[in-house]
C-alpha cells in the first residue's frame, strides 16, 4: 500500500473536487436571482468540503486532521440540505440532480469512514 503524503493523493479529495465541478455546473442553471442566495451557498459548501480535507491533511496531527474532516462532513450535510431545498424550489426547471446526489453521497460515505477510522 502506498503512503499518502499530500491531500491531492486522497481519493476523497479528488472525488470532492469532482463534486465541486458538478455543483458549479448545476448552479449555473439556476435562475439569476439565486446568484447571491442558494447558488452562492451551495458553491461555498462544496468548496468547504475539499478545503477542509486539504487543510486538515496538511496540519500534520491526527487530532487536527479529524477535526477538519468533521468540518468537511458538516459542510457536506449543509450541501445535502441546500440540494434538497433547490430540488423543492426549482422543480419547474426539471434539473438533473443524479450526478450531484451520487457524488455527494460517495464523498459523505468516504468522510464518514475516514472519521470512524481516526476515532478508533
Features:
23S_rRNA-intervening_sequence; 120 residues; de novo design (two linked rop proteins); 23S_rRNA_IVS_sf; Four helix bundle protein
Tally of distinct domains = 1
Shape: elongated
**What radius of gyration results from the CA coordinates?**
15 Å
CATH topology: de novo design (two linked rop proteins)
Write the layout of secondary structure elements.
Layout: H1 11-27, H2 38-59, H3 62-89, H4 98-119
Helix pairs in contact: 1-2, 1-4, 2-3, 3-4
Protein name: Four helix bundle protein
Pfam family, one: 23S_rRNA_IVP
Task: Summarize the structure in words.
The chain has helices spanning 11-27, 38-59, 62-89, 98-119. The protein has 120 residues and is mainly α. It has a single domain (7-119), classed as de novo design (two linked rop proteins), CATH 1.20.1440. α1 (11-27) packs antiparallel against α2 (38-59), α2 packs antiparallel against α3 (62-89) and α3 runs antiparallel to α4 (98-119). The model has no long low-confidence stretch (mean pLDDT 94).
Describe the structure concisely for a colleague.
This protein has helices at residues 11-27, 38-59, 62-89, 98-119. By secondary structure, the chain is mostly helical.
Amino acid at each position: 500500500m502506498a503512503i499518502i503524503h499530500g491531500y491531492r493523493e486522497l481519493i476523497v479529495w479528488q472525488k470532492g473536487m469532482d463534486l465541486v465541478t458538478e455543483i458549479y455546473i448545476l448552479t449555473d442553471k439556476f435562475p439569476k436571482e439565486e446568484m447571491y442566495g442558494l447558488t452562492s451557498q451551495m458553491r461555498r459548501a462544496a468548496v468547504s468540503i475539499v478545503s477542509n480535507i486539504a487543510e486538515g491533511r496538511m496540519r500534520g496531527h491526527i487530532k487536527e486532521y479529524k477535526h477538519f474532516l468533521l468540518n468537511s462532513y458538516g459542510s457536506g450535510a449543509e450541501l445535502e440540505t441546500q440540494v434538497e431545498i433547490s430540488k423543492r424550489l426549482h422543480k419547474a426547471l426539471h434539473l438533473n440532480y443524479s450526478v450531484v446526489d451520487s457524488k455527494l453521497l460517495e464523498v459523505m460515505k468516504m468522510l464518514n469512514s475516514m472519521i470512524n477510522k481516526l476515532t478508533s
